[in-house]
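Holo prediction — iron/sulfur cluster.
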Amino acid sequence: MAPATPELPPIDPEEAGLRVTGPADHAAGLTAVRVSMAKALRQMGPVKAARNLLSVNQTDGFDCMSCAWPDPQGHRHTAEFCENGAKAVSWEGVRDTAGPEFFAAHSLSDLAGRTGHWLEKQGRLTHPMVRRAGRDHYEPISWDDAFALIGSHLRGLASPDEAVFYTSGRASNEAAFLYQLLARAYGTNNLPDCSNMCHESTSVGLARTIGVGKGSISLEDLHRADLIVVSGQNPGTNHPRMLTALEIAKRNGARILAINPLPEAGLLRFDNPQKPRGLAGHGTGLADKLLRIRSNGDLALWQAIGQLLLSAGAIDRDFVDTYTIGFEAWSAHLRELDREAVLRATGLPWAEIEEAAAMLASSERIVHCWAMGITQHHNAVATIQEFVNVALLQGMIGKPGAGLCPVRGHSNVQGDRTMGIWEKPPAIFLDRLRDEFGFEPPRRHGHDATDAVRALRDGRASVFVGLGGNFVAAMPDTEVTAAALRGAGLTVQISTKLNRSHVDAGRTALILPTLGRTERDRTGGVEQRITVEDSMSEVHASRGRSAPAGPLLRSEIDIVCGIAAATLGAAFDIPWSAFARDYDLIRERIGRVVPGAAGYAEKIRSRGGFTMPHGPRDSRTFPTPEGKAVFTVSPLEVLTVPPGRLVLQTLRSHDQFNTTIYGLDDRYRGIKSGRRVVFISAEDLAELGFADGDHVDLISEWADGVSRRAERFRLVEYPTPKGCVAAYYPETNPLIPLDSQAAESGTPTSKWVVVRLVRC
Ligand code: SF4
């Protein structure tokens, strides 16, 4: 065993003093309250903290800008937020600001040497800023000049398809609807969004099988289920209020089957801080069974479970005969299933698979939840369709307490797609847009997120507009993406805080500071509300309560209308300035254009909002070409890696939301003051000749022969399946090749990256 390498200076000085204490066995608890309050008071001060935390997720308050977990329809807790919701509210409500004096003091060359965490910590953006070609500093610019600059760049392009209009999942429904209207009136469908990187595999897999690319349950269904399957998801960190729903379901007698390579604290026990027992550390046990599956073993697992259910006769024959097609081909495929291949793919003993199948066979109402651990694999669509196969077999769609629940990671990512933010828009949406606004929208499909990078890289696009988000940090192949953005003629970032995408900016670059969810929006001189849609198709209003971080901030809607007016002028019969003054006018148009949103403006006035229709959930009607739910047959694959190589999955720490790093701790995995760590099993350490605490570089290998490197990670011995390692993104996004994508959906394969470790 080679001697442990000496402690190397960390890449981020803030990471000096990294400590490792081992995984936690429970989530939340008193510590969650302490951490939430400490961050809120430090960043917002007592008055603003109280106002914001007592308004978040309340019916007349604002919607949490973090994940897309639904709010309870009935009673809301006084504190209707989780620890990570409190972090998100505090991060946006921070009193620090980054204005003209900040940009005068920090050149882009200086900012390029800073970490993402440091950039965001500088505070709220308060002034429109421009970086003119050849300059190394951002300078103030007026709103009108900024809009005019964008308009002249867009009108100067040879084709509208040389522009890209990117959306992050924080954009409201109204802003998203106007943004797609702007892009399509301008002449392009280049409308990539963050769901291209996360649940695109879900949208494709579900649309093909049940006809709707969205989950089919309500929160009430989860409470009433008698079995909840949680696959490839870490709810304790990424959707923490889900733990409250799991606790309610457990109290109602439900069992939980969790499937995850890692023993995540939020799958083991929930110490609900809203309950004395939880505060006392005697919370609710969650998973009754945790399958510690090998990365990418889920397709094999669900084919095996399907086979076992078939042979056990656990079939809802009436449902299968009435509502589905393709059952015979699927069951024939499963009769030939290679058990050895299943064992190799899953890394699980057959007995454990049988136990899981028995849990399904003995259940009446099953909800299947999943997230990125499923969607970011090259065969993700096939795996999701296998979930659907098993749900169809048991008739678990369109009945109370049962259904499919892809859990969205960003607060309004589902709403944005519903509003038309999609590079592959359905014809019905474009027809209704034409009929409503009197112009013929483009029909050619546009660029998704990875195609947008290729177009910018290859000079086929030169203007990038970002409605929120941090594109450079969120995308794979960081250096390729950053260079593509730097090569653009113009980049425009509509943002609340400074991030990597403002530093890897176009030759000419604009930063347009926008209002956050916590802030009052008095655009047009009246109190405005926006609307969002959560993971369970609940649409509701959101109204900020705090004073804006600066007098020059504008709402996303106002900014989109400003860009549209400066680019399109009066070319179309679209009342941009009226829309900016009265958001109800936008909602009336949404009601006439968006399928399923009829009466939108009226419906949103009802307390708690309304639920978008969903044929399979509401009436077992399946809007597939066949008019039925479809069983699909997918070949079973067992992915292997060459000797001495490992499979990396990228993931979030508990102090992180997407690419936003709130802090350097990961309490549930026992990491303090550090992020450049690799979680690896004791077996792999021994086999590869490393020890806990050694420092390595990670090198990924891909068909293009390019060696992608991420430097100086500390190895942390951790309970992860042999051959499978894990590390945080965005630090490991440089390792993921742009071309490594899920089949059919194009989602980056961030959960399956073949790497080798090199001592450093
Ligand atoms: S569960 Fe998600 S939406 Fe709810 S408060 Fe927490 S982070 Fe926000």
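READOUT: Residues 57, 64, 66-67, 69, 81-82, 84-85, 239-241 surround iron/sulfur cluster (CB under 6 Å).
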